[in-house]
Structure formats: structure tokens, C-alpha cells
Amino acid sequence: MLIRRSTNIMLIFLVVLLTTPLCSNPTLATEPDHVNEELKGLKAKAERGDARAQFFWGLRLLNGDGVIKDTTRAIEWLKKSTNNGNEFAPGYLGDIYYSGNGVPVDYRKALTWYKISSKYQNKASLYMLGLIYDFGKGVTKDLSLAIHYYTEAEARGSLYAAHNLGMLYFKGEGVEKNYKKAFSLLLKAASKGLPEAQSQVGYLYDEGLGIQQSYEKAREWYLKAANQGDGVGQNNLAYMYYKGLGVPKNLILAYVWFSLAAQNDEIDAKYAIYEVESEMTSKQLKRGKKLFSKWRIKKPYLFNSSN
Question: Any signal peptide, and if so, which residues (predicted)?
């Protein structure tokens, strides 16, 4: 049985930090002389207690940017920068411990640093606090706190917070179910290009939840998400073509979009392909496979409304 899918709350870590082996003695990497002089000057300012210089020197060590990477020393300098009032350093410290970048993952330490960062109204740190309480990362799951931090982050422009908060209203988790509120929040994120939110806005139009039902609008938002490689959007767009919902029934396009969704690990789509195949002629199937082979390597897919 083919089904349309709603999205889920996203467990998305905003800053992905690469982990490489530590070096105990950070030294300047091989760079042109003028670059080395700039780095020496930066380090000297950091050693004199300049919070901004300490922050940027810590980032250099963290990323191996012009110097040999050393996460341990990076943490030391970021802590010094935080203690001297830099508003950005504590968020990076939270990221390091949340992701386990050169150190063991420690959600409690991440929480501590994100809370310090949140005092500066940093939207990414506020979102991460919401995420930690939403999923119970190193703490007891607490949706009231998750909603509090998501709300603060969303008010400061976090698209991820808007999506996750919208999904809590959609599901009625931690708050009374409210489709209109969910739609409003999700539309904010969708309008700024977040594919997961675009899929969910499409679903709300599809089902007429919190907004007047419209297959035309549903297809528009599914297509936006699908063109960004979102599996849910691709799956639901395929379903519309398979059932002829607001569009002429088209088994070839249904097959292609289900195949793209399956490529993005949508389980429902993997089963749907076989059902669609059973209704296709050999000519249609050949055409569908050819299109899938062509489209799968195009990211974004950039297909217009005629597709």
C-alpha cells in the first residue's frame, strides 16, 4: 500500500567539525612569510589577553588553519576567550563536545557551553539547547525546555528551530496540537529554502491541515523539496503522479520520483517502486529507468512544473 509521508523532527547538528589526530606542539604550518607573520602577530595578541585574538587563534588550532591542528590547545584558547567575554567562543566549545571533535562526546559539557553562549542570544546555540532537551542528549528529555529554547532560537531566525517547533505543534508533543501554528512556523522555514520544511508544508496542503487543501500548492512545495534531494518530498511527489492527485496520472514520473526517494533511503518508496512497476508497460519502464539514470546524478534536479 502506497502512502504519503510526513517529515520528522530533525536531529541536525548545525556545525560539523572534522576530527583529526591531535598534535601536542602546535607550530606554524608551511605558509608564505607574510602569512606566518600575521599568525605570529595573532598569537602574540592572544597571549596578551585580547579576547578576539584568543578566539581566532583557537579557531586556527581547531581547524589546522595555517598551524598544525591541536584540539586540546584550541579548547584552552577558546576557554580563555570565553572568560574574557568573547560571545562566539562558548558556542564553538559546545560544538566540540557535542560532536566529539578531538575529545570524547560529552553532552553535559556541550550543554554547559551552549548555555553560556545562549546568554549572548546566539541562535545556533539556542537551537542546540532545544535539540539536547528534545532528544534527551545527556539529560532527561524535557519538551517544555526544548520548546522554550526552540522558540527563542526561532525568534532570532533559526530555520531549524522553526521546523522542529512546527513539528511539535503538528504532532502535539509538549504542546496542544495546533495545525495552524505548525503551518505558520513551517512556512517560515520553507520559504527560506529548508527542504524538510518544504516537504511538510506540502503535506499540510496535501491533507488540508491548518490551511485550505490544495493539491496544486502541495505539488509546488513537494517539488521545491524534491529538487533539493529531500526524500520525503520526492516520495510524496511520486505518490501524486501515481494517483493523479492534482496532476495527470503519470507512471513514468511516479517511478522516477519513487526511485530517487528510495536512493535517499525512503523505505516506503523502495516498496512503492515494485507496485508502480507492476502497472507499467515495458516501454514505460525503459523510459523511467533512463530518466532515473539521468536525473540521479543531477543535484539539484532543477525540474520545472512540466515534469
Answer: 1-29
**pLDDT > 70: what percent of the chain?**
85
pTM of the full structure: 0.85
